[in-house]
Specification:
Helix content: 25-40%
Order of helices and strands: EHEEHEHEHEEEEHHH
CATH topology: Rossmann fold
CATH superfamily: Class I glutamine amidotransferase (GATase) domain
Distance between the termini: 12 Å
Strand content: 25-35%
Number of helices: 7
Number of domains: 1
Radius of gyration: 17 Å
Largest sheet: 9 strands, mixed
CATH class: Alpha Beta
CATH architecture: 3-Layer(aba) Sandwich
Strand order of the largest sheet: 2-1-3-4-9-8-7-5-6
Number of strands: 9
């Protein structure tokens, strides 16, 4: 197993993903596309992880590497690689598969309940998670489910929370990789971003940090279960 992790900004790192790979002594490489927008050969890796970022998939003029990333994802899917996209990463996978990515009906930042669909309850990565559980969110866009993909996780008001395409490709709108330290760092950016919220959006940085104290440990346990399943090799 050899894992490639693509970062889009410095402060959205792999969190639990890197912790898991270190613990399992799995070889991995991290490329920060905002600093080094050069893509290696997909064939050099068994697993590819696409992390989040503040940009939108349709901002290719402002972030030219998104065009190359789209081609890289299409090639990796064609070659049967195991691919996990988180937040922006999920939106990039949806776009590469021909689905529409667009502004969601609501901006989600903080902890939200999501639920497994019938597909999700049977899925080898999700089946041993609770049917309903809280996840950490930070996004303003959402995606249509790509053709031939299955909706794994849903919620309200943003119904498309996770999908699977084929056997190896997963997109998660939410952040199962976060640690408490990551959320604390992200919260430092939220006061500036809050100026762009819809007037009906009620946001409390203090409330999110307080909620994180009680929800982060169970969230990390669920994240580890999911990652164990995603990075499972033939030896288990």
């Amino acid at each position: 197993m050899n894992v490639l992790i693509l970062k889009h900004v410095e402060n959205e790192g792999p969190g639990l993903i890197e912790n898991h790979l270190i613990q399992k002594k799995t070889p991995y490489q991290i490329i920060n596309l905002s600093l080094n927008p050069v893509f290696p050969k997909a064939d050099h890796f068994t697993h590819i992880v696409l992390l989040g970022g503040p940009m939108n998939v349709y901002e290719e003029d402002q972030y030219p590497f998104l065009k190359d990333e789209d081609l890289f994802i299409k090639e990796a899917i064609q070659r049967g690689k195991f691919i996990l996209g988180i937040c922006l990463g999920a939106q990039l996978i949806a776009k590469a598969l021909g689905a529409k990515v667009f502004k969601a009906s609501a901006k989600e930042i903080g902890w939200y309940e999501v639920s497994l669909t019938a597909w999700g309850m049977q899925d080898p990565l999700f089946f041993n998670l609770p049917q309903t559980f809280p996840v950490f969110q930070w996004h303003e866009d959402t995606f249509d489910i790509p053709m031939s993909a299955q909706l794994m996780v849903t919620s309200s008001p943003v119904s498309h929370q996770a999908f699977r395409y084929g056997e190896n490709v997963y997109g998660l709108q939410f952040h199962l990789e976060v640690t408490e330290e990551m959320i604390q760092e992200w919260m430092k950016c939220v006061q500036d971003e809050s100026r762009d919220f819809h007037p009906s959006f009620h946001f409390s940085r203090a409330a999110i940090l307080a909620e994180t104290k009680t929800k982060i440990k169970p969230s990390m346990r669920r994240g580890r279960i999911f990652l164990m399943n995603f990075f499972k090799d033939e030896k288990g």
